[in-house]
Amino acid sequence: HKQLLTSHNPNDISELINSNIKFGTELLEVSKQTKVKWFINTGTFWQHFNNEKYNPVNLYAATKEAFEVIAKYYVETSDLVFTTIKLNDTPGPNDTRKKIFNLR
After folding, report:
1. Residue 76, SS3?
2. Minimal CA–CA distance to 86: which of 103, 23, 57, 11?
3. Are the beta carbons of 42 and 84 closer than 8 angstroms?
C-alpha cells in the first residue's frame, strides 16, 4: 500500500526543496558556467513505485524526480553530461549498515 510508505510533515517541505531541488539547481548553474563536463546525481528507487517509470512513493522521491527534470534543461543548453545513480537503500540517522556513501 503506497499510503503506508508516504510520510512527511509540513515542516519538512522547505528542507526537501532546498536540499533536493534548490541546492542541486545552483550546482548545475555553476557547472554550466564553469563548463563542468560530468554531473553525477543520486536518485532513489522510491521514484518508481510498482516499477513504474515515475510514481513517487513520497515527497522526498518527488523532489528527486523534479531535480532530474530541471537537470534536463542544463543538459540541453550545455555540454554537461548528467547521470543519476538510483540507490535502492538510503541511510538514516541511526543506520549502522555499510553504504556506498558513509555519512559519518
Report:
1. helix
2. 57
3. yes
Cα 39 to Cα 67, 72, 74, 88, distances in angstroms: 13, 12, 10, 20
Place of cell 518508481: 48
Q: What is the pTM of this model?
A: 0.77
Cβ atoms of 67 and 24 closer than 8 Å? yes
Q: Residue 51 in contact with residue 2, Cβ under 8 Å?
A: no
Cell of 53: 517509470
Task: Please give the Cα distance from 104 to 71 (Å, whole number).
Answer: 28
Q: Which neighbouring-strand residues pair with 55?
A: 48
Cα separations (Å) of 90 from 26, 32, 38, 76, 79?
Answer: 23, 29, 23, 30, 30
pLDDT of 5 strictly over 50? no
